[in-house]
UniProtKB/TrEMBL annotation:
Belongs to the P-Pant transferase superfamily. AcpS family. It is found in: Cytoplasm. Pfam families: ACPS. Its cofactor is Mg(2+). The gene is acpS. This is Holo-[acyl-carrier-protein] synthase. It comes from Virgibacillus necropolis.
């Protein structure tokens, strides 16, 4: 049974502007494992897509729970990749749920959609 559906969109230029100013957003949004992946990306544009996609995914998950970011923090939600490259959500406190996630990027935006099943 579907417990929740969430979607989020973010402008890549907002993320780029923020990471050019300081590294605060990276540390606030990404877990240690996500930061390691981020730092291994070879181009700035790919780094911007990566963090924007993770931001949108975490916001979409929080929306799917019905609470938004607040009760859940960005550090409680982690996005890893399957061998195929498909994103996988890991969320503290939601281990018994099945989650489905899709992340996409265009030239200007990153979008993520999450479905949570009980």
């Amino acid at each position: 049974m579907i417990k929740g559906i969430g979607i989020d969109i973010i402008e890549l230029k907002r993320i780029k502007k923020s990471i050019e100013k300081s590294n605060r957003l990276v540390k606030r949004i990404l877990t240690n494992r996500e930061q390691a992946t981020y730092e291994n990306l070879t181009s700035v544009s790919r780094q911007v897509e990566f963090i924007a996609g993770r931001f949108a995914a975490k916001e979409a998950f929080a929306k799917a729970t019905g609470t938004g970011i607040g009760k859940l923090g960005f550090q409680d939600i982690e996005v890893t990749s399957a061998k195929s490259g498909a994103p996988i959500l890991h969320v503290q406190g939601f281990e018994g749920y099945t989650t489905f996630i899709s992340i996409t990027h265009s030239k200007e935006y990153a979008v993520a959609q999450v479905i949570i099943e009980e």
